[in-house]
Amino acid sequence: MSHANLRKHRSRRARQSAFTLIEMLVAIALLALVAVLCWRGLDATIRTREDVVGHLARTRNLARYFSQLQFDTLNMATPQEIGGAPLRIRPNELVIARHLGVGAGPTRLQIVRYQLKNHQLIRSASAPLSTLTEVKDAAQNMDGFAGVVAMDDVRSMNVFVWMAPVWTDQQQVIANAYARFLTQYAVGTNSTVGMPLPRGIRFSISTGSPAAAFVRTMPLAQ
Length: 222
Prior knowledge:
InterPro entries: N_methyl_site (IPR012902), T2SS_protein_J (IPR051621). The protein has about 220 residues and is of the alpha+beta class. The chain contains 4 helices and 9 strands. The protein has helices at about 5-75, 80, 130-140, 170-185; strands spanning about 85-90, 95-100, 105-115, 120-125, 145-150, 155-165, 165-170, 200-205, 210-220.
């Protein structure tokens, strides 16, 4: 092989080697790009799964919260038993005096409070109560109740009571209705027939992230 042909052969081999190196670099770049895309897809899938799991957990907790609320409203004490209104509503708060069966013993009373505090939806309850004095003391010292947080990041809580023919969130209206009932009840039970009393409750909350609204309407014990 002449020197000229040898130089051409070496030059061709060099070009082939350089072209192969470029191919390798391109392949590496493509693999890196695919890896990044796969990682982003996997990360998005994991985040979506975490969001779904978190949302389901919050929904389950809220369902239990509403179920407990309905149980409490259906077991609400009568105004005669506590000598006044068995429920009270305030901004971000609902208080109910309810019956509490403890084993085979006599039915006792309990004060339960539903409240929104520091963006947390909380249910708290007193110990079993046997006397009106205990009921009144518990109603004045509710901050010491044991509580359970049902949900975080709650932005608002609203409670309305059905007083035919309208919904109201005015505690004074509710208290006056029970006071009139007790006055008539002292005269005779027949005089209380058909008197307007709270018959239902509408409980609604709104959450921040994800933004959602939940509303539950339920009857009150008669």
